[in-house]
Amino acid sequence: MPDEMFWEIHSGLPREGPGDNTSTRHAFELMKDLPLHPHILDVACGPGMQTMELARLSDGEITALDFHLPFLQEVDRRVRESGIANRVKTVHASMMEMPVSEGHFNIIWCEGAMYIMGVREALGDWRRFLAPGGYIAFTEPCFLTDEPSEEVRQAWMNDYPAMGSIENTKKIIEETNYDNLGHFVIPDSAWWDEYYTPQEARLKVLREKYHDVPEKLKHIEETQAEIDMHRQYSRYYGYIFFVVQKRDR
Known about the structure:
By secondary structure, the chain is an alpha/beta fold. Helices cover about 45% and strands about 20% of the residues. It has helices at about 5-10, 20-30, 50-55, 70-80, 120-125, 150-160, 165-175, 190-210, 215-235; strands at about 40-45, 60-65, 90, 105-110, 130-145, 180-185, 235-245. It has a 7-stranded mixed sheet, sandwiched between helices. β1, α3 (about 50-55) and β2 form a beta-alpha-beta unit. The protein is globular, with a radius of gyration of 18 Å. It starts with a helix and ends with a strand.
C-alpha cells in the first residue's frame, strides 16, 4: 500500500502515469461495432484525464473506479464542471474487488495500472464483467529490446518483476482467451507532458518543504531517479497500449 509521502508526491498531477489523449483516442478507435451508448468501466481512473476523453469519444455511461478517494473527488469535480455528471459515476474500490455488475460492460479501460494486479490475473478475472464481445483496453510496461541495459533491467525487476516483452504480453492475451485487435507504443511525449514534467516540478517544491526531513527526501530522490532513468534510457522500454476482445466461443 502506498504511503503518505507517495500520495503527496502524486497529488495534483494531470495524470497518474504515462499517457495522452491522442493514445486514448487511437485505442478507442480500434474497437468496432460498439453499441450507441456503451457501458465503460475505467479501472484505476486516477484524477480522470482519460475518463473525460472517453466521455468525449462516446455517448456512453462511465463508471470510474479507484481506491484513492481524492482522485475520485477530482473526477467528480471535472465531470460536474463539464456538465456530464449524469453519464459518469465514481466508485471507491480496489481493482481486485470491484463491486460492479457481471456481464455489464462493453469496455473495461485501464491505463497504467493493470500491472498492480498482473496482466494474466486481470484479464482472467475481469472477463466476467464484460458483456458478450466486450473489450479491454490497457497499457502495460514492456521492454522494447531483448537486451536492455542492466540498470534498466534491475530497476524494473525491483518495481515490476513480471515485466516482459511485447511478445510475452501477446502470448498472455492469447492464453487468456482474448483476441488482440491491435497494440502500439505510446509516444515518449506521453511520459513527459502530463506526468513526469509536472511531477518533477512538484519534487522541486517538496524538496524545499522537507529539506530537513531525511526520510521524506529519500522518497523524493527515489522518484527523481525514476524520472532520470527514463530521461536516459527510454529507448529500452515503454508503455504499450493493447486493445483486446473477449472470445465468447
